[in-house]
Design goal:
CATH topology: paralog of FGE (formylglycine-generating enzyme)
Largest sheet: 4 strands, mixed
Strand order of the largest sheet: 10-9-7-11
Shape: globular
CATH architecture: Alpha-Beta Complex
CATH superfamily: paralog of FGE (formylglycine-generating enzyme)
Distance between the termini: 49 Å
Order of helices and strands: HEEEEHHHHEEEEEEEE
Number of domains: 1
Length: 302
């Protein structure tokens, strides 16, 4: 009798936990469209050119803001994952940092499972369609995922609300960076410190940076779609392997077939204005966890 009672109580706990609400990130719908991808001005580094035509034939959802500590901290206890370090700054509505590409897609898969969707990634980081089969067709992926680089740039440019493109704003929502972005010049008072932090930075010039940091999401003006912080605050992981651009027109691209580094977009609180440009791009190892890099989520509108 006691065993049955214990089993019943355990079942109730499992059910209540399974039905407990989690913090669901707010999403914005982006409708299909065609745009010119890349550095249209011609003053960024060579990796952001040549400009080429991209056709997105499907609608998709993208996070209104970068994933915050509140949202990521909600996920960690469910999966026994350690919470990401906040670098000694506040957590809550600041964008989560110190998350690798692997951490970001694990969060996406967890969110999919919580909402009874087919996860977008397998254990190797490859895309899965709605039936759980490997795919390179982004239009068949049901679950939450990282935005493709093309989706990211199209959304940052204002998407269907900014068509026809070009021209477009240099930054996401404005040509005036201070209106829409936290970047090096407005993120705080810059100070170089060394041993006072108790950290050996001798291999990195003997100094650490203090006085500037990330900021809570959604404080700057949004772009035409109502998306915040796509320029500045933190760099954002994209789905894609990094590869060089080509001039050919593309439809629904998902990046290079293979690679060594993943694309990141948007610039950050510690980078300059040009790094925050809509047409700019960069890359990091998918294992990297750093204080200037976070992510936002996306989903194909099936």
């Amino acid at each position: 009798m006691m065993i049955l009672l214990i089993f019943a109580l355990f079942s109730i706990l499992l059910i209540s936990r399974e039905t407990e609400k989690h913090i669901a990130p707010e999403m914005v719908l982006v409708k299909a469209g065609t745009f010119q991808m890349g550095d249209e001005v011609g003053d960024l580094w060579d990796g952001a050119r040549p400009v080429h035509t991209v056709n997105l034939t499907y609608d998709f959802w993208i996070g209104k803001t970068e994933i915050t500590f509140n949202e990521y901290d909600d996920y960690c206890p469910w999966t026994d994952k350690p919470c990401a370090w906040d670098h000694g700054w506040d957590r809550e509505d600041r964008p989560v940092i110190y998350v690798s590409w692997w951490d970001a897609i694990a969060y996406c898969n967890w969110l999919s499972e919580r909402e009874r969707l087919q996860p977008a990634y397998n254990e190797d980081g490859n895309l899965l369609d709605r039936n759980g089969e490997l795919t390179t067709d982004i239009t068949t992926v049901e679950g939450y995922r990282l935005p493709t680089e093309a989706e990211w740039e199209y959304a940052a440019s204002g998407g269907h609300h900014a068509l026809p493109l070009p021209p477009r704003f240099l930054f996401s929502g404005s040509d005036e960076i201070d209106d829409v972005a936290w970047y090096f010049s407005n993120s705080g008072e810059y100070e170089l410190v060394g041993g006072s932090l108790g950290i050996d930075y001798s291999r990195h010039g003997g100094t650490a940076i203090q006085g500037i940091s990330t900021h809570p999401v959604g404080q700057k003006q949004p772009n035409e779609l109502g998306l915040y912080d796509m320029s500045g605050n933190v760099w954002e992981w994209c789905h894609d392997w990094y590869g060089e651009y080509t001039p050919e027109e593309q439809t629904n691209p998902i990046g290079a077939a293979t690679g060594h580094v993943r694309v990141m977009r948007g610039g950050s609180w510690i980078f300059g204005a040009n790094d925050c440009r809509v047409g700019n791009r960069f890359y990091r190892s998918r294992h990297d966890k750093i204080f200037r890099l976070g992510f936002r989520i996306a989903r194909t509108d099936l």
